[in-house]
Write a structure and sequence with these properties.
Layout (H helix, E strand, L loop, with lengths): L1 E3 L2 H10 L2 H6 L5 E3 L2 E4 L11 E4 L4 E4 L5 E2 L1 H8 L4 H12 L6 E3 L12 H17 L4 H12 L4 H6 L3 E3 L12 H6 L3 E3 L5 E3 L4 E7 L5 E8 L7 E3 L15 H7 L6 E4 L2 H9 L5 E3 L7 H8 L4 E6 L3 H14 L8 E6 L6 H8 L1 H9 L2 E2 H10 L7 H15 L6 H14 L8 H12 L11 H11 L5 H5 L12 H14 L4 H7 L6 H8 L10 H30 L4 H14 L1
Parallel strand pairs: 14-15, 14-16, 16-17
Antiparallel strand pairs: 1-7, 2-3, 3-4, 4-5, 5-6, 8-11, 9-10, 11-12, 12-13, 17-18
Length: 578
């Protein structure tokens, strides 16, 4: 059995919560006409373009395009998953989140109830922390930490521990199946299981909500592998988590910059010197998912890697992974340490102030990118310039449209003395939308279909007018009619009180993007005039659809003839027209 949050509870929660109060508690809002405005919390801007609508219970930014309901806001603002956002919204409302039991044979049974996995991992972390000082074996790990200059306070803050050098230390204390599901046991072909981590200094990996999701373990001698990580589980994915992120956010939820280093001990060593804004990838190359996650909390990342071959390769892979994440307003720097040094050894040699200056003066990604590619090429030759183009252009095409992308291509054009064709139409459209949006005048390019659907999404009660107008949508055909029918069906079924509930109903669907765009579309309809506007647009839409159908049937009749049913439709259309 697994627990799900009832859909009715989510809808009731969206009715109970006033999105204006919710957002105002995090981003101070000012009344502006019928809406509330602020500077957008999701991108940097000087003039407020972030708007919250109380009647629709949605927010929309005319600058960056962010939009959604109360749940969507919490997901973006607090960097939460859907369930976490619902739980936080319920806490804001002062209510408990109910759960409904779902039989394993029904739809949605693949959603595992993983609370017991979190529980066992939390218990294992406490057990390892106790073992650090429990006996002579654990004290070996304490001595190692002392040689690295790690204090008891830092060890406590990061919940460091020790895995006893035994095959069954965990099996004797926790449930076998739960340990297997949590990745803490290795199961042999004969079905026997043993502890995955033995005789290692243990680093619990915690997610943003403080939950232990996995572990990293380091040997205390020269045996291999030096580091061992938890395997992929229902709660842990190495490419999605970052060591030290929870501890960083506990100290500062909006750091000026985040330092990305290579390993667990790098994060620990930096924390010992008071540098608490460092995180580490988990034994793999830094991924785009991890970079996007970090950019939710800061606008600047500094990749700090060792100066050896492995460190330089890691830096380049991180830079490549970062290119699709580099929207305007985000910055990445590369900080390669002197050969033979890691952050710990360099800090001990230089002290804190010079190290901090290295961070501030780290090489910007644009310079690093071209230096790394062009540094080994002879750009005085056609061959060298063509090789630079062949290598750089595909990489830069991954950068999102924006000023940074345009300037990187301009730099490539300068270095190669070659005109590089860049598609900037998307960016120009984005900029035009940014500066023209927010005006109350209706765009002349809004089609009748978009107007009808937008009005329906923004004012669900208008659905009752469709039947009163005598409109038979099942007899019509036009672009967008499937979505219109689906919205009408949903309104009849759910009877939503506002746009936020309709928006929630389309979360995760193929039509979510279109619905989000239409629910926040400014139509310039004066308050109280929505019903007349909807009826007029719906009648005109039906008239156009019937005329188009009439013309198609007349054309087909002259070309190849009509079947009986089509003749009947044609007669009805001609009769209605007269």
């Amino acid at each position: 059995m697994s627990g799900r949050i009832p859909r009715q509870f989510i809808d009731d929660l969206l009715v109970r919560i006033d999105i204006v109060d919710l957002i105002d508690s995090r981003v101070p809002l000012k009344k502006s006409g019928s809406n509330f405005t602020a500077r957008c919390p999701f991108h940097t801007e000087k003039t407020p373009s972030f708007s919250v609508n109380r009647s629709r219970q949605i927010y929309h930014c005319f600058g960056c395009g962010a939009s959604g309901n109360a749940i969507g806001f919490l997901m973006e603002f607090n960097h939460l998953g859907f369930v976490e956002a619902v739980e936080d919204l319920a806490a804001f409302a002062g209510v408990d989140v109910p759960r409904e039991l779902v039989d394993s044979g029904t739809a949605g049974a693949d959603r595992k109830n993983v609370s017991h996995v979190y529980d066992v991992l939390a218990g294992v972390a406490v057990f390892y922390a106790e073992q650090l000082r429990a006996n002579a074996e654990g004290r070996r790990a304490v001595e190692y930490l002392k040689t690295r200059g790690v204090s008891g306070e830092v060890a406590r803050d990061f919940l460091l521990g020790y895995a006893p050098d035994k095959w069954d230390a965990l099996v004797a204390r926790f449930g076998r199946e739960e340990l297997i599901e949590a990745g803490m046991l290795v199961v042999k072909e004969d079905g026997k299981a043993y502890d995955r981590f033995r005789g290692r200094l243990m680093f619990p990996i915690r997610d943003k909500r403080k939950r232990v999701v996995g572990f990293g373990g380091r040997v205390l001698d020269d045996s291999l592998p030096k580091y061992l990580n938890s395997p992929e589980t229902a709660v842990f994915s190495k490419s999605k988590e970052l060591y030290g992120l929870y501890e960083l956010l506990e100290r500062n939820s909006k750091p000026e910059r985040i330092l990305v280093v290579e390993g667990y001990m790098d994060v620990i060593a930096l924390a010992q010197f008071g540098i608490s804004n460092a995180v580490a990838a988990l034994g793999t190359a830094t991924s785009k998912t991890q970079i996007d996650l970090l950019f939710r909390f800061t606008s600047e990342l500094v990749f700090c890697f060792d100066g050896d071959n492995a460190g330089r390769q890691a830096a380049w892979k991180a830079a490549e992974a970062a290119l699709p994440c580099l929207r305007d307003g985000r910055q990445i720097k590369i900080m390669l340490l002197p050969q033979g040094h890691d952050p710990d050894s360099l800090l001990r040699m230089e002290n804190l102030s010079p190290f901090m200056e290295r961070i501030r003066s780290a090489q910007v990604l644009s310079d690093y990118f071209f230096e790394n590619i062009a540094g080994v090429l002879d750009l005085t030759t056609v061959e060298g310039r063509s090789q630079l183009l062949a290598t750089a252009k595909p990489a830069l095409e991954k950068v999102p449209a924006g000023f940074f992308r345009e300037m990187m291509f301009a730099r490539l054009q300068e270095l190669t003395s070659t005109r590089v064709v860049v598609d900037v139409a998307e960016n120009q459209t984005r900029l035009k939308s940014k500066f023209n949006s927010g005006k109350s005048t209706q765009s002349p390019r809004v089609s009748l279909t978009r107007k009808v659907i937008a009005l329906l999404l923004q004012h669900p009660h208008l659905a009752s007018l469709v039947e009163r107008q005598g409109v038979r949508l099942d007899e019509l055909s036009f672009a967008g009619i499937e979505l219109l029918r689906d919205i009408l069906r949903l309104i009849a079924l759910e009877k939503p009180e506002n746009s936020a509930i309709l928006l929630e109903a389309y979360r995760g669907s193929s039509q979510e993007k279109a619905v989000k765009a239409l629910v926040s579309l400014e139509l310039g309809v004066p308050a109280g005039g929505e019903e007349a506007e909807f009826c007029g647009a719906l009648q005109q839409l039906c008239k156009q659809a019937k005329e188009a159908m009439l013309n198609r049937l007349i054309e087909k009749e002259g070309r190849e003839g009509l079947i009986f049913e089509e003749k009947e439709v044609l007669r009805k259309l001609l009769r209605d027209k007269t």
